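fyi for ur records
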Amino acid sequence: MNGFRFSLVHVLEWYEKQLQLEENRLAECHTALENAQRALSEARATRCGIEHALIHCSCITAGELTALESFRRKSRNHEKRLVSDCDASQSKLQAQLVAVKLVQRKVRLLEKLRERRLAEHSYAANRELEELAADTFLAKFARQR
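which gave:
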């Protein structure tokens, strides 16, 4: 009997490469989300630090209060943009997770198919060997008679 050869090996290799690409994209999405969250937390910390420092000054002028209000508006707008970036990154991450799971499912399906065909091939090879052994035994037994 011939050796085992899985006919869909090239398809399986292609799906494995596609899975690697999707996992790389997933890692990029994770990095983008972490960067957006880090930028948001830094912006909030900066705003809070400046507000805290100015509020705890013993003498605050009208110009400083006007500048503080302007700073608050700008920083809130900046934080809103960063929050929307975080939301967009989270959405991309979720979509990429779905894509990775889809490709993983395809790879697992082909691997199970390969295992099943290998088991069938092994069974057929073992059956062929058993038949050969039985024929050999019967031929030897017939010669001895």
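The chain has a mean pLDDT of 92. thats all i got for now
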